[in-house]
Amino acid sequence: MKKIEFSNSSIKIVLIFVLVLLFLIPLNLIRNLIYDRQDYQREAISSITRPLGGDAEIQGIVIAVPYKSYIENFDSNGNKHVETEIRYIIFAPDSYDLDISVNPYYLTRGIFKVPVFNGQIKLKADFSKFDFSYFNISPKDIMQNDCFLILGLSNSKNLMTQPKLNMDGKDLFISPIKYDSVSPFETSVYYNLSGVDFSGKINLYGAIDFQGGENIKIQPIASDNHINMVSSWPSPSFSGGWLPKERVLSKDGFSASWNIAGLSTVYPKSWQSEDDFNGETVDVSFIVPVDSYKKTNRSVKYALLFLAIPFIALLICEVFSKIRVHPIQYCLIGFADVIFYLLLLSISEHISFDLTYAICSICVCAATLLYASAILKKIKWGALLSAVQMISYIFLYGTLQAEDYALLIGSVGLFIVVILLMFITRKIDWYEINQKNGEPL
């Protein structure tokens, strides 16, 4: 039976492949460390925004009108009894106008800076067409003197002062009674509306001083909704159920406006309090443009590829220089590349990601230059290996910047690397190398 023999160069290639796989262990530890730092960041953000009420959400404003509902019951003897129950009809505004000014600023917790804000909402709402006939309610059963207005919020901590509302020239007073079972909102402020005339149009005006952290959400609830927002924040993010009809962004801030028809929302003109709705919101986020954790995590995803490239380059330098490189020396160069990602994570918490990336790549490439020049006996081999590593880092940086085209850039780049390796090694006789050198690689 013929004995199968393996060349020493083949063994070295297999060894490099094994080393690359082994380096997945520290890379996975770095990835877990990124997740831990992200959790720590989220805890810091929560500890700052929680006392401010978190996201500031204005869920709407409605009028609740009670009426008497009669329920017929029969006892065991067949006698009919009529019981009276108080129920409520909820009326949404015909028009709903909000002028919002937002003053953002930073609060810090440890090394983390969190965007928070305060501001004011100038509110205008018009109510009309209080039609009870749709619900088969007799006018004599309407309890007009007991109706109330509901201002909906996500959290009462978002209020900096008591909201001041005025209806038809009269200031409204907060009701001492809470009607949480009636309100369609998470948290509500209730105002007495005794003696309101439902035969005409009702005009409501008000001002709400609010605070919060990171996000503002507005729920359009009327038949016709107009929202205007201005702020000094230069990098907002618009999302939610509707995008701005108009927006102006500059380094000094932004302005945006929405016109939302009631037909595009889930809210009807009026409904019974037992009905439940879950409407969409207009979302504006005050984001930090660069998230270093996100970019570091994406860079680690490409780490295996950019770890294999220096190993292959070192193997080629070893072949052409005819100097043996020990596996431990491969490991040291690999560890330098792994530490690049750890440095990227730790330093980017304190300075910008772009500056961090430049510092880390230059330091690692300089270390590779000095070390490879020493083990390969000539500076040209160290310069070659360092240049390959620097090109890899530049390519990785471009991939991180082009998030939408990362897959395309990565696949094309990998193809180019393979073509270059094929071109450089096209004349190498891997079987003849061991015979010429007389000793294993």
UniProtKB/TrEMBL annotation:
The chain crosses the membrane at residues 12-30, 302-321, 328-347, 353-374, 381-399, 405-424. The keyword Membrane applies. GO terms for cellular component: plasma membrane. Signal peptide: none annotated. Keywords: Membrane, Transmembrane, Transmembrane helix. InterPro entries: Uncharacterised_IM_CreD (IPR010364). This is Cell envelope integrity protein CreD. It comes from Treponema parvum. The gene is creD.
